[in-house]
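A reminder from the course coordinator: this example appears on the midterm review sheet, so study it carefully.

Given structure:
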C-alpha cells in the first residue's frame, strides 16, 4: 500500500509541475514603479514641438491675411484719390486748359493747377511708399506710376514740379526726376483739343 501511495503522489506532483505556468518576474509590470524621467522629457518635447508648429502655421496664415487686407485697403484708397482728382477736372475745367496752354494764365488758375499737381504727386508718393514697404505689389505700382509722366508732361507742369519737389520724400523725388529727365512732353492735350 505504501508503494502505491508513493507512485500516486509522484504522478500528482508531475501533473502539478506540468500545469503550473512559469512566471518571469522581470517581465511582469510592477505597480508603484516610479515614472521614467527620460520618457517624460521626450513626451513633453514632442508635445512642445507640435504646439510650436501649430503656432507658426497660425501666425503665417494671420500674416498673409493681414497683408492681403493691407493691400486691399491701399488699393481702395488709391482708387478713391484718383476719382477725386478726376472730379476736380470736371469741377474746374480750367485745370486741364492750364496744363498745355501756351498763354499766360490767371493767378487763380495758376494756384489751382499748382496745387492740383502737388495733390496728384502726393498720391503717387503715398503709393510709392506703400510699394517700398511691401503693401503694394510691383504690378499695381507700375500701373499708377505711369501717371507721373502724364501729370508732368507739359512745360508748365514741369516748372511747377521744379518749384515744389523739395516738399516730397527725396527718394521719391529722385524716382520722379528719373522718369521725366530727357523724356518728351505728352501729346495728350493737343490730341484732346483736336477731338470733336
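Designed residues:
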Amino acid at each position: 500500500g505504501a508503494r502505491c501511495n508513493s507512485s500516486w503522489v509522484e504522478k500528482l506532483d508531475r501533473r502539478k509541475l506540468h500545469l503550473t505556468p512559469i512566471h518571469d518576474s522581470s517581465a511582469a509590470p510592477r505597480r508603484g514603479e516610479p515614472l521614467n524621467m527620460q520618457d517624460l522629457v521626450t513626451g513633453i518635447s514632442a508635445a512642445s514641438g507640435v504646439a510650436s508648429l501649430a503656432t507658426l502655421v497660425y501666425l503665417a496664415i494671420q500674416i498673409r491675411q493681414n497683408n492681403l487686407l493691407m493691400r486691399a485697403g491701399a488699393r481702395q484708397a488709391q482708387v478713391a484719390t484718383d476719382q477725386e482728382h478726376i472730379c476736380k477736372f470736371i469741377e474746374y475745367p480750367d485745370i486741364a486748359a492750364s496744363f498745355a496752354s501756351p498763354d499766360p494764365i490767371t493767378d487763380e488758375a495758376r494756384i489751382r493747377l499748382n496745387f492740383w499737381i502737388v495733390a496728384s504727386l502726393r498720391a503717387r508718393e503715398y503709393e510709392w511708399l506703400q510699394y517700398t514697404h511691401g503693401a503694394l505689389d510691383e504690378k499695381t505700382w507700375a500701373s499708377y506710376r505711369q501717371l507721373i509722366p502724364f501729370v508732368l508732361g507739359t512745360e508748365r507742369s514741369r516748372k511747377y514740379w521744379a518749384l515744389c519737389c523739395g516738399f516730397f520724400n527725396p527718394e521719391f523725388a529722385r524716382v520722379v526726376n528719373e522718369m521725366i529727365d530727357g523724356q518728351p512732353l505728352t501729346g495728350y492735350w493737343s490730341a484732346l483739343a483736336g477731338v470733336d
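The radius of gyration is 43 Å. The CA atoms of residues 97 and 189 lie 8 Å apart.
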